[in-house]
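Let us practice reading a record.
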Amino acid sequence: MTDEEKQTRTTPGWVRPALAALSGLLAGFAALAVAELTAAWVRPQAGPVVAVGGAAIDRTPASVKDWAIRNFGTDDKLVLQLGILAVLVLFAIALGVVALRYRRAGAAGVLLFGVVGAAAALSRPDSAGFTDALPSVVGALVAAGLLYLLIGRLRTPATAPASSGTAPEESSASEPGWDRRGFVVAATAVAAASAGTGLLGRSLSGSASRDAVASRADVVLPVPDSRAQPVPKGAGLRIAGISPFMTPNGDFYRVDTALVVPKVDATSWRLRIHGDGVRRPLTLTFDDLLRRELVERDITLTCVSNEVGGPYAGTARWIGVRLADVLAECGVKPPSKGGRADQLVARSVDGMTIGSPVEDLMDGRDALLAVGMNGSPLPFEHGFPVRMVVPGLYGYVSACKWIEDIELTSFDSYDAYWVKRKWARRAPIKTQSRIDTPKPFARPKAGSVMVAGVAWAQHRGIDKVEVRIDDGPWREARLAAEDSRDTWRQWSYDWQATKGGHTLSVRATDRTGEVQTAERTGTVPDGASGRHSVVVTVD
């Protein structure tokens, strides 16, 4: 019995299809590794996973986006990336199996992967041009060649006088012999080379961001010219389960579209201010901002994706330059004083555009170009080196992170990123309140139960909070001391709980006299409304 006949009898029929699937996986791994290395040379945001993920976010309907945030929270981007990788794995396996019978078709399928990645990279708002297509294209070309090579080892007899009349592509996928040793060697080499390439790419990408990390470490924030007053005694209630008055940087919510957090070198950062009504265009460096008059303010931020009772609100002590002062220096006037522009479009280094009403930015509120957060330079996740902070406006119309460009224009002539996706052009924060304790479905003991939480109506302030038990009357809660009208306010209510199931509801009244509405609406197009309630069972 020949070696070829022994191999045929001892190799189960499923082995070669399984190895073909493995070949597809190895080719996909190589594609991502080579793309990672190429992206380190181009820019990390041009990598195929990031580019495809970003393009998917750009095209995701608002309702789906809100569903993802509601179910996955700030892990929504990780879930998206894992989903993309899962699809790539299945795609790679399928191409490997197809290539066992149709070798060229399998390789062509890999090239299709490159086309999709390249198109996604070029479609991104922050695309740097044709070079952004290179990571996907180069990775796909390498992967196609490797898949063709590996499948060849599964289709070629180990000992084979070549048939003069048969081309390699025409050889049947059911040939009795295949190059087992050649496949093992080739597959091992591909896996090892891909791993090394990926690690090298990751290392080079990391080295590119080390300058940014070093620039942040070197920042020493000057003492603000206008200091924030100490948080009033009694502003933070000592009640278990209530949100702390000041939110630590590590706990502050993050909702944005950046799959890769931009790491910007503060020493090379520039902010350009231009557009309609700008008589004196200006370009600022980070040091320019630090040399200006700095103010320190406590401000509560709220995300428009925050559902009633949701977690996407937080308070920090911000340090920055008054945006109104910078705009006035450029000759900008608000529309109420004859200004030509009614919209300020802020652009981020990742291509995000956020449109804010010029009138609101220049009405005397503490709208900031922020450089510090809770006593330290901004974390990268929250916009280092500079971001916008505007009290009273939802983040999607005010809180541009990693800002690099400010253009004065009009709402009629330009729709910013989220407005193009059916969100409202203007979005003042709605009066809201939340029960932090007891938690939903808690089982407190009968007797005295402390109901507590937070309420906010930035730039208007909270005047009153009321609690209702079941369908009973509204009872006024005790308000904690107020820091400022731009921060949330804690509250508490001592409930004499009786046994059984109960529904606890809360509503707030702001300083204008507006009572938090009971009408329940979703987050689209300008923020959720309604009253928060929790159901508990008293034992």
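A brief commentary: DSSP finds eleven helices and 18 strands in the chain.
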